[in-house]
């Protein structure tokens, strides 16, 4: 296993370090188009006096060759409304144009499948760009990493290799959120269900994707601008938690956003959350991980101590605080609308079928709209950092995936460290 790990490191360590020493003053701690907004962008109104709908999480396509055992999407507990039929491309476009009239700036593709396995996807991205809607894409990377697959799904757009696909994404101002759970082959394969997948050389393809996206320039540093490349180490599991800090530092020094968090309370993530509860040491290890990341950030000038005190602890350790639940919502492939990807129970569902109510009505009657209005306050009291309503709320069995005192404890630990 160690030999395989070193092989992956050898491929990826060719990615040049951008920040040899401290991060530059004013470093933008974000990835473009994710759906997290600066303080001055939140809580704005449209010309008709409505709170702006700044962001939508959306699905596009239903095909996926991987079988991730923790997947929050491909599970009836999330897709309980799938029997009503999936939205077609024209319907999705119509809802996005309506959302644009309400202030939409960006969308984030979550699923339901692997977006790049849809032969219409690149054309849809071009449509978004033409309509001045920015996009970020969750992907496992195997299509970008494979010349054969890149050509299979994109030759109609004159894209015949993975590098050409990566270059096109750069031209379209797309952000790529690349799944990356481990440097270790066996560990990474377990995260994508390789034993049940036809993609048997996944780790090489993932590594290829990362190097191609870097070659295309998605992680180029420009002062005052966020990166457009992220490595997504989610969910954090007991099996890979010891590796998350290493991945985090490796990525950030290369101007790649590094995002991690515990499992969601939706889809197969429900099972993962329950499994994690059986590991008594996990939560203590998670507290140590968050604390170490924030200390590293501050010591390396990625953020200042004053900024940390003001913003508070993010669900995503070391990253921009989550506030998309005050800026938008999640429109799923079936037309179901939920608060965010983290939970899809009745309390988190804003509409069972948007086709019956319409996007504007769903938005202005949603719980997230009340956050946008300031009627539901952020836990930090700054109407900026909303922690994670999906994970912080108690489920029907009285469980939380994140304890009530978690964020404050991390904040206290970090502040105490710098008092020494």
> Which fold name fills CATH's third level, the topology?
TIM Barrel
State which percent range the strand residues make up: 5-15%
Tally of domains: 1
Biggest sheet, strands in spatial order? Answer: 6-5-4-3-2-1-7-8-9
Q: For this structure, what is the CATH homologous superfamily? A: Aldolase class I
User: Which sheet architecture does the biggest sheet show?
Assistant: 9 strands, mixed
By CATH, the architecture is named: Alpha-Beta Barrel
State the distance separating the first and last CA atoms: 40 Å
Described by the principal axes of the CA atoms, the overall outline is globular
- Helix count equals 17
Compressed to H and E, one letter per element, the order equals HEHEHEHHHEHHEHEHHHEEEHHHHH
Give helix % range. Answer: 25-40%
Structural class computed from helices and strand pairing: alpha/beta
CATH class descriptor name: Alpha Beta
Descriptive terms for the model:
globular; 17 helices; nine-stranded mixed sheet; 420 residues; disordered N terminus; alpha/beta
Short description:
With 420 residues, this protein is of the alpha/beta class. It has helices at 2-12, 89-101, 121-130, 142-145, 147-154, 162-171, 185-192, 202-216, 241-252, 269-276, 282-299, 305-311, 354-357, 359-364, 367-373, 389-392, 406-417, and strands at residues 55-59, 106-111, 134-139, 174-179, 229-233, 257-260, 328-331, 337-338, 349-351. The two termini are 40 Å apart.
